[in-house]
Design a protein that fits this description.
Blueprint (H helix, E strand, L loop, with lengths): L1 H48 L5 H4 L4 E3 L21 E4 L6 E3 H10 L31
Antiparallel strand pairs: 1-2, 2-3
The chain binds zinc ion (ZN) (2 copies).
Subcellular location: Membrane
InterPro entries: Znf_RING, Znf_RING/FYVE/PHD
Pfam families: zf-RING_2
Length: about 140
């Protein structure tokens, strides 16, 4: 009987320490899981923001040859001037204009105007269009 109580006396602290260690392991695993989930959520949110415009929508945007109105403006993607006769696209919401190739490249990665950040994803929603901003304010 004495031996048994001595054994219990030795084993109990070990059992206690083990229980604490197990609880600690659980906490660590929980923290790692939560951090992973948060990281994933953040990555998803970032991916959402940096989603380009679908190609089918890109092709619906009006493309024109630069005329008198676009001439002399700067394409804010390549920072070069838009010259008469060059293929350009004018964004339907904010009326900012760019070289067609420059804008298409940009919109494939980012569905927002490079100048004023007006999201083109709103075009995909069946909502009335907001009033256009005066395109003469195009400043890079
Ligand atoms: Zn350009
Ligand atoms: Zn714009």
């Amino acid at each position: 009987m004495l031996i048994a109580s001595i054994l219990v006396g030795i084993a109990l602290p070990f059992a206690g320490a083990f229980a604490l260690f197990a609880a600690y392991l659980c906490l660590v695993r929980y923290a790692i899981t939560m951090a992973g989930m948060r990281g994933r959520l953040r990555a998803e949110a970032a991916a959402e923001q940096h989603k380009g415009l679908p190609k089918s929508e890109l092709e619906k945007l009006p493309a024109t040859e630069a005329g008198g109105e676009e001439e002399g403006r700067e394409c804010c993607v390549c920072l070069e001037g838009i010259e008469r006769g060059q293929r350009t696209r004018v964004l339907p919401l904010c009326k900012h204009s760019f070289h067609l190739a420059c804008l298409d490249q940009w919109l494939a990665r980012n569905a927002a105007c490079p100048v004023c950040r007006t999201s083109l994803l709103t075009l995909l929603l069946p909502l009335p269009l907001p009033l256009p901003i005066n395109a003469a304010d195009q400043n890079c």
